[in-house]
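thread: overnight batch results

M.L. [08:02]
morning all. the overnight job finished for the chain we discussed friday. pasting input first so we're all looking at the same thing
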Amino acid sequence: MSLGRRILLKAWRAGLPILAAASGAGVWAQYPGQVQKDAKQAPELRAVAVLEWTGELGKPKACRIIPVSVLAEGQLQDGGIYLARPQPMALDGETEYELKENGKTIGLFDIENAGQELGSWVGFGKWRALPAPPKPKMAAPVDVDDEDDDKPVLHRKKHPGDTGGSKTSSGSGSGSSTTAANEPAPDPDRPVLHKKDESASSPAPATGSPAGGTSGQGAAQEDADRPKLTKKQEKNPAEDIGHVDSLPDISDPDRPRLKRGKSTSSGPAIAPSLMGLPPDMQQAVAVSDARNTPDHPWSYSWANPADEAKMKASMEGMAREALGLTPPAPAPKKSAARPATKTPSGKVSLKALDKPNQDNPNTALLPDEQFRVFELAYGSGATMVLTAHTDAPGKDRKYVTLIAQPDLYGDLRLLMKSVTDGAHLDETPRMRLIDAVDAMADNRGELLFELRSDSQRQFALYRVYRGQAEELFVTGGGEWGTASN
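M.L. [08:03]
and the structure it wrote out:
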């Protein structure tokens, strides 16, 4: 368990009280048909946040993390205010978040410090890559020598002069070993290693030395051919330390002295801050859990690719109709006279002067279109989300968000439709899909949306269940500038 997860777990085990969410926001609603889980298997804490950054994936220029929710005792609490002292618990230092993309972990984010931006708490830290998986350990070979084993065994070839494994007999008078009769005579030109005789190599005591001490010459001649390792004598490196000499005219011991060196301040490093809502800002789901959980991909695999194209075309038609991009049907054109022409074979063919209308209203492009297909639970089928808007600037721009599923007959079934414009964002905010996330820790995915208005923004979790899309949780929100820019 990582240090961040231990901190998240320690805060809950301390028995701190649960703070209620802000009135009118952050109310947890139990969806119909929820299966009661075992309390021993349910995680004690699970935090969901949104990481926002500019720059490359994994190497952001500036980034921030915004807490969304904290699951405590089976209920969702507002991550921006839960156990705030003064920063919320979801932004405590050294808390680790796993960055998710479609349910797959793409990196880690460690929080170093937190601060307030326009009335809301945000965290700053470092984006870290995933650790490399450990290499599998090779099992040590087992040396089994079985005489009854029928497997072939490799043996080393005997060379002339090899004495290993041969039987020797010591002579009666000389003490030397003799080679067995069944082995060949040793090669006289083969080099042989001999063990050094310590008694013969020890120097004899000098005659003129008292108490039998050895002379200096004898010690120098002892094993003169033996190689010796000599340690390299390093030169004293130049000291990179600034010195300040005391001045003769000043004797104050409390006078500050300037010294060169690294600062010993232990304050947290301030990460690059992301302010406002830049147009190139990217978003990703971040999850911090008290226990390690495997990845749960949310992508849906179509049995027939033609079904995906059919569903997408149907949702795009609904989006164009909601945005007012479908023009009225054109009036039928009168066909002009078709003159007769002759082909090279001599036959007469008729060619119409008028051409078919190529302006198909159902093929108009949707600006900023985003189409995603999820499998929010194992075997639950496809859940499709489409978001788009018009090209009109400012107050005249319209936004649409659709959630749909295919029915039993293969037709499109619309579950939710949200339509708004730039003039009514405070009443009906724009819904921007971020990703799917398991906020309730029950192996079911919720759709995480960002709700942008003119003066603030919030984050909302939607549960799709039994042919309905219900709002499960909404954060308190904060001031974030103009969202219609």
